[in-house]
Specification:
Number of helices: 6
Number of strands: 16
CATH class: Mainly Beta
Distance between the termini: 37 Å
CATH architecture: Sandwich
Shape: globular
Structural class: alpha+beta
Order of helices and strands: HEHEEEEHHEEEEEHEEEEEEH
CATH topology: Jelly Rolls
Radius of gyration: 18 Å
CATH superfamily: q2cbj1_9rhob like domain
Strand content: 15-25%
Length: 289
């Protein structure tokens, strides 16, 4: 029998509540290396050909925010298709501890279907959307409920500094009605259409089940992709970063990427109980660097 990464009670918690946090999954050295890589990309992404795909810039800048940000001069809040931009982001797909947990939760055998980094600049009101469900992106898969969103935290985050808020247990609910209007309307400072965010934002903000995932750098959160959650604003004086990868069971085919414009790749993350870093797809990405 293949050994499991999690204890049965930890898997049971994820099935029941829709989330699990692995404290210290990334070492301080791993966190610093990823952070250094990310900040270097932010310096060069305007001219780096790896930050463009199909004629589209893979970075989304914040709109209408005052101030200069030397570590992020182009005010990027979202960067996509990370496995094509830098090798360490590709290697993170198959991180031994994280990929083993992913295999426990949605395996056996998984694919990664989305890789992004979300940066919350100081003073940003909401760096992406309000309350939403990630399954909005992958609607053909929703009923199978075999997707997990993995949040790699590169900084400490609390309620006022970008922490993720979730409503435990809501992963068992259907996909809720959504709106294409940003929750903060014309005053929003994130370049987002609001796609995928849910109606009745105040209802979810006031839900008594709501909790804040307060984390430290190196913690990794695993949330069922159907759980209702939101990204927090950042009232601190420093940027906060988290890398977000979405994984799915490898048997789930026909991912609906028609609403995704950045051309995400779908490729193996785990096979036969181990990281899939020896597959043809992985080698092609690795050899491109």
């Amino acid at each position: 029998m293949t050994p499991t990464a999690l204890q049965p009670e930890q898997v049971a918690q994820f099935r029941d509540e829709g989330f699990y946090v692995e404290r210290g999954a990334l070492s301080p050295g791993e966190v610093q290396a990823l952070l250094d890589e990310l900040l270097e990309v932010y310096q060069t992404c305007k001219t780096d050909p790896r930050c463009t795909k199909g004629g589209k810039w893979l970075a989304n800048p914040v709109q209408d925010i005052d101030g200069d940000f030397p570590d992020n001069p182009h005010k990027v809040w979202l960067l996509s298709v990370l496995e094509e931009i830098r090798r360490p982001f590709l290697e993170l797909v198959c991180h031994p501890r994280v990929s083993a947990i992913v295999d426990d939760l949605v395996g056996p055998d998984t694919n990664v279907v989305e890789t992004v980094v979300l940066t919350k600049l100081p003073g940003i009101k909401n760096s992406f959307r309000g309350w939403h469900q990630d399954t909005e992106y992958f609607s053909r898969w929703m009923e199978e409920r075999r997707l997990v969103t993995v949040l790699y935290y590169l900084n400490d985050m609390e309620a006022g500094s970008g922490a993720t808020a979730i409503i435990p247990g809501t992963h068992k609910e259907p996909l809720h009605d959504r709106t294409d209007i940003h929750p903060q309307g014309q005053d929003a400072n994130a370049a987002s259409s609001g796609f995928g965010q849910m109606q009745e934002q105040e209802r979810w903000e006031d839900d008594p089940r709501r909790i804040i995932l307060e984390v430290q750098a190196g913690d990794v959160g695993f949330i069922d992709s159907n759980i209702i959650h939101r990204a927090g604003g950042n009232d601190s004086d420093t940027s906060r970063h988290n890398i977000i990868y979405t994984y799915a069971n490898a048997e789930m085919r026909g991912v609906d990427m028609t609403r995704i414009s950045s051309g995400f790749n779908v490729f193996p993350a785990t096979r036969d109980g181990r990281p899939a870093d020896d597959t043809e797809e992985y080698r092609a990405f690795r050899d491109s660097f």
